[in-house]
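Section 5: illustrative case.
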């Protein structure tokens, strides 16, 4: 039977379409705490990760294939994280690599599961510099280590604020806070500063933590997002006007907006994402984030999730394959100019070299003060 050329062209187009749709997606698994105390960090990060995947797909994906970002909720519970990370391999056995999580204790529930399956895990926000040794070969950081941000905080306090004495308060139940305050104290003392008091506390025992504090030039608070604001607010309610300095656990816009009377609060973080930032990458990211999530303000963790997905996609492209072993081998050679800065792995390290942003909280809003790379970093 004679077929018109248009009909044959249609068949050819359908065949090509079917062939393209049969090509499997490149699957990335994302483990985030979308509920529980870590949600304030992980929800923004997961949204940044989703934005990066969606942008990649609008541009044709990677290796000519679409990107499937599979997100699971760890509920800020290590036992749930272990179970759901394992289940991810049951439902998506072809997953290429995993990413996510913003807390050391939470990450140490997920990353060993990925390693047992021979999969790379890139944490977007867990900052312990001890992590690569705890999960050999398969765990990389897309963020700086706590020793870097703590050293930057100490050098900023001593050099730019003129602080010579410090009181240190830390959440004794969090690995993140225990490491952070230790690195800060080490670097502050090296510079010539004196730590007048170093006191651990349990969440909820803030009054005891603030009892009989000696007068100091600065109060360093090592805390996660669930207690950073509460502790700082109580410091001010007790009539203590001493400047407060913290780490990236302070980097959460919403809670501070409820305390417009609090000022003289500073923290170290991965990037400043305020509307007054003139960096073209930040402007483009803010615009894209606003379109994807109307009414939500991006923070550094949103940018970290975004950069982490783009880092993994760059590794897939460099490998020319989504085979987990190939991507693992390709990642150390990737250099990414991301929203949170230039990201690369040097001298065999699985922690990138990145500068630290210093941000002030005043009137319930964040204000960028500058960035620095510390001159000396305490070893992990």
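Designed sequence:
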């Amino acid at each position: 039977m004679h077929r018109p050329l248009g009909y044959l062209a249609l068949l050819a187009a359908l065949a090509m379409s079917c062939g393209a749709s049969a090509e499997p997606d490149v699957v990335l698994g994302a483990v985030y705490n979308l509920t529980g105390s870590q949600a304030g960090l992980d929800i923004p990060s997961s949204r940044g990760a989703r934005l990066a995947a969606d942008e990649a797909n609008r541009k044709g994906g990677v290796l000519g294939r679409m990107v499937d970002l599979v997100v699971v909720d760890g509920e800020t519970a290590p036992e749930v994280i272990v179970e759901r990370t394992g289940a991810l391999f049951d439902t998506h056995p072809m997953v290429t690599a995993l990413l996510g999580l913003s807390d050391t204790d939470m990450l140490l529930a997920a990353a060993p599961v990925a390693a047992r399956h021979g999969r790379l895990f890139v944490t977007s926000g867990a900052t312990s510099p001890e992590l690569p040794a705890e999960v050999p070969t398969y765990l990389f950081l897309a963020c700086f280590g706590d020793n870097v941000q703590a050293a930057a905080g100490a050098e900023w306090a001593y050099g730019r604020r003129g602080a010579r004495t410090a009181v240190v308060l830390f959440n004794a139940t969090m690995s993140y806070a225990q490491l952070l305050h230790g690195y800060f104290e080490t670097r502050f003392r090296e510079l010539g500063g004196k730590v007048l008091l170093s006191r651990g506390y349990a969440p909820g025992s803030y009054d005891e933590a603030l009892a009989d504090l000696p007068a100091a030039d600065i109060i360093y608070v090592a805390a996660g997002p669930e207690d950073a604001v509460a502790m700082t607010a109580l410091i001010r309610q007790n009539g203590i006007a001493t400047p407060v300095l913290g780490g990236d656990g302070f980097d959460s816009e919403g809670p501070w907006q409820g305390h417009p009377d609090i000022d003289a609060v500073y923290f170290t973080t991965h990037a400043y994402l305020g509307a007054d930032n003139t960096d073209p990458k930040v402007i483009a990211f803010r615009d894209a984030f606003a379109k994807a999530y109307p009414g939500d303000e991006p923070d550094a963790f949103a940018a970290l999730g975004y950069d982490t997905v783009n880092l993994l996609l760059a590794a897939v492209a460099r490998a020319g394959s989504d085979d987990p072993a190939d991507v693992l081998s390709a990642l150390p050679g990737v250099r990414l100019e991301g929203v949170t800065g230039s990201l690369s792995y040097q001298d065999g390290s699985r922690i990138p070299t990145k500068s630290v942003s210093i941000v002030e909280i005043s009137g319930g809003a964040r204000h960028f003060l500058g960035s620095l790379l510390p001159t000396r970093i305490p070893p992990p």
